[in-house]
């Protein structure tokens, strides 16, 4: 039987167009999904859009259009952006789909029947940017640290979810790595939240928010947007909302998220799963933020780089490579155009592109025939596999680029362009051509189009020269 692999991204809010932060998570998930498919695992990759809630209703109002029309348009932009970037998701889920809404309502009924949902008056601070309740302790100078806004005071009747009931069980699962949280600093952050603040019951419905899914037994209430959103990870697999109903692929192997939404993914979401009689996700992997001049790149702060600007400059595969290699996966990284230009020139134009061009040129010019074998460097494969399994995406790339550097050194040392004997030239070029073919195989998940081009080129007996893969900037 084939190993199964299920990977998800957050579903993105459709209050604005996709930006580089969303692109980063989605490309990383795509690289992992492609890698797991390549090594023969039965893979399911889910992404989508989060379309309900006050924030989105407000945006639609400002734009002067009906919320449904507004979300249709923005959701479409996300789908176009992902197509452009060659994202291989198996399904794109939208929380305004009828099936999703029906299953969410069913799930609410299940949790209610179980006694995990009860009515009470709820009061607290609420950040609409996050669509989250906040504690005083979370604020910096009275403001949400992500959105730099003062949270609203909320006071209304609500259906509450008994989050507190799951405190001990979840804490244990996280400690024991039954729910793994990576990197380890993030696990520690979550553990200290459990130990210091602990889980408190939370409002799972809103009276004053109309744009959302109605609570099935009380239509004056709308289901809290995060309760609605989390369930996408199940409804995206065709789950209908029944207790203990285990859809194929659940539990997720990797849920990739940004650090802004770690806490809710490590508290509310797995508690809902327990309430619904389902296993918790196997792993939450948290990456850092893309910063732009030291600030989180975000729609609300208005310092966003659009993915299409990168694609215009570096091409689809160039953009995918730069996003994955620009920073240590898991940490924050400041992105500047200057840095990206330099990295593109060094790694792609002068690195991979130049190596492929030089070697294929010499092979053609000297009519050298070779029989190369794809993926024949077991050691290289194993080290890359190990890094990818640990989701050290940038390190996997570094290993591949070390091979490129070694190949360049070998060529400078042996100078095949100065040799006259065809057999001598062949002896120098053959191992390098073989390296190129092995590298391209491992690059398929990262740069699907370029890697395939190189594989085709280097699988010929008589390799011929190619046009430049990465024109210099
Ligand atoms: O939070 N750097 O949606 P969202 C890196 N709908 N990644 C970034 C980023 C940045 N500057 N900005 C955003 C939501 N991201 C909810 C999720 S899931 C059930 C519901 C990425 O549109 C990162 O993955 O605000 C972050 O977690 C996500 O986009 C937030 O997207």
From TrEMBL:
<comment type="function">
    <text>Is required not only for elongation of protein synthesis but also for the initiation of all mRNA translation through initiator tRNA(fMet) aminoacylation.</text>
</comment>
<keyword id="KW-0030">Aminoacyl-tRNA synthetase</keyword>
<dbReference type="Pfam" id="PF09334">
    <property type="entry name" value="tRNA-synt_1g"/>
</dbReference>
<dbReference type="InterPro" id="IPR023457">
    <property type="entry name" value="Met-tRNA_synth_2"/>
</dbReference>
<protein>
    <recommendedName>
        <fullName>Methionine--tRNA ligase</fullName>
        <ecNumber>6.1.1.10</ecNumber>
    </recommendedName>
</protein>
<keyword id="KW-0547">Nucleotide-binding</keyword>
<dbReference type="InterPro" id="IPR009080">
    <property type="entry name" value="tRNAsynth_Ia_anticodon-bd"/>
</dbReference>
<dbReference type="InterPro" id="IPR033911">
    <property type="entry name" value="MetRS_core"/>
</dbReference>
<dbReference type="InterPro" id="IPR014758">
    <property type="entry name" value="Met-tRNA_synth"/>
</dbReference>
<feature type="domain" description="Methionyl/Leucyl tRNA synthetase">
    <location>
        <begin position="137"/>
        <end position="359"/>
    </location>
</feature>
<dbReference type="GO" id="GO:0004825">
    <property type="term" value="F:methionine-tRNA ligase activity"/>
</dbReference>
<keyword id="KW-0648">Protein biosynthesis</keyword>
<dbReference type="InterPro" id="IPR015413">
    <property type="entry name" value="Methionyl/Leucyl_tRNA_Synth"/>
</dbReference>
<dbReference type="GO" id="GO:0006431">
    <property type="term" value="P:methionyl-tRNA aminoacylation"/>
</dbReference>
<dbReference type="InterPro" id="IPR014729">
    <property type="entry name" value="Rossmann-like_a/b/a_fold"/>
</dbReference>
<dbReference type="GO" id="GO:0005524">
    <property type="term" value="F:ATP binding"/>
</dbReference>
<comment type="similarity">
    <text>Belongs to the class-I aminoacyl-tRNA synthetase family.</text>
</comment>
<keyword id="KW-0436">Ligase</keyword>
<keyword id="KW-0067">ATP-binding</keyword>
């Amino acid at each position: 039987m084939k190993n199964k692999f299920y990977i998800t991204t957050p579903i993105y809010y459709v209050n604005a167009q996709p930006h580089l932060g969303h692109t980063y998570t989605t490309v990383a998930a795509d690289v992992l999904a492609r890698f797991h498919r390549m090594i023969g695992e039965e893979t399911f990759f889910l992404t989508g859009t989060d379309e309900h809630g006050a924030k989105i209703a407000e945006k639609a109002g400002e734009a002067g259009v009906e919320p449904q029309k507004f979300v249709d348009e923005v959701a479409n932009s996300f789908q176009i952006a992902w197509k452009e970037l060659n994202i291989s998701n198996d399904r794109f889920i939208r929380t305004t789909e009828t099936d999703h809404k029906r299953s969410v309502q069913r799930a609410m009924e299940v949790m209610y029947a179980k006694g995990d949902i009860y009515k009470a008056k709820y009061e607290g601070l609420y950040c609409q940017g996050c669509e989250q309740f906040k504690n005083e302790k979370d604020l910096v100078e009275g403001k949400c640290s992500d959105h730099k806004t003062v949270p609203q005071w909320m006071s209304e009747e609500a259906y509450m979810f008994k989050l507190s009931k799951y405190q001990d069980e979840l804490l244990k699962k996280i400690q024991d790595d039954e729910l793994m949280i990576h990197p380890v600093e993030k696990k520690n952050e979550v553990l200290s939240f459990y130990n210091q603040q602990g889980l408190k019951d939370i409002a799972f419905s809103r009276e004053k928010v109309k744009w959302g899914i109605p609570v099935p037994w009380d239509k004056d209430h709308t289901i809290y947007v995060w309760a609605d959103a989390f369930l996408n990870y199940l409804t995206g697999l065709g789950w209908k909302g029944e207790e203990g109903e285990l859809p194929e692929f659940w539990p997720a192997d990797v849920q990739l998220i940004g650090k802004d939404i770690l806490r809710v993914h490590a508290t509310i979401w797995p508690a809902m799963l327990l309430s619904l009689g389902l296993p918790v996700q196997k792993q939450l992997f948290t990456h850092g933020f893309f910063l732009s001049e030291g600030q989180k790149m975000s729609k609300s702060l208005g310092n966003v780089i659009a993915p299409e600007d990168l694609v215009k400059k570096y091409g689809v595969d160039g953009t995918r490579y730069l996003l994955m290699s620009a920073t240590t996966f898991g940490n924050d990284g400041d992105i500047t155009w200057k840095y990206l230009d330099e990295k593109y020139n060094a790694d792609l134009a002068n690195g991979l592109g130049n190596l492929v061009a030089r070697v294929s040129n010499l092979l053609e010019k000297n009519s050298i025939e070779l029989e190369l074998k794809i993926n024949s460097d077991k050691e290289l494969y194993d080290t890359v596999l190990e890094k990818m399994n640990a989701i050290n995406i940038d390190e996997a790339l570094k290993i591949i680029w070390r091979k490129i550097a070694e190949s360049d050194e070998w060529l400078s040392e042996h100078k095949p362009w100065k040799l006259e004997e065809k057999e001598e030239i062949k002896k120098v070029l053959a191992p390098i051509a073989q390296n190129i073919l092995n590298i391209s195989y491992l690059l398929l998940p990262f740069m699907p189009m370029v890697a395939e081009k190189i594989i085709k080129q280097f699988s010929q007996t008589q390799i011929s020269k190619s046009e430049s893969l990465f024109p210099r900037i």
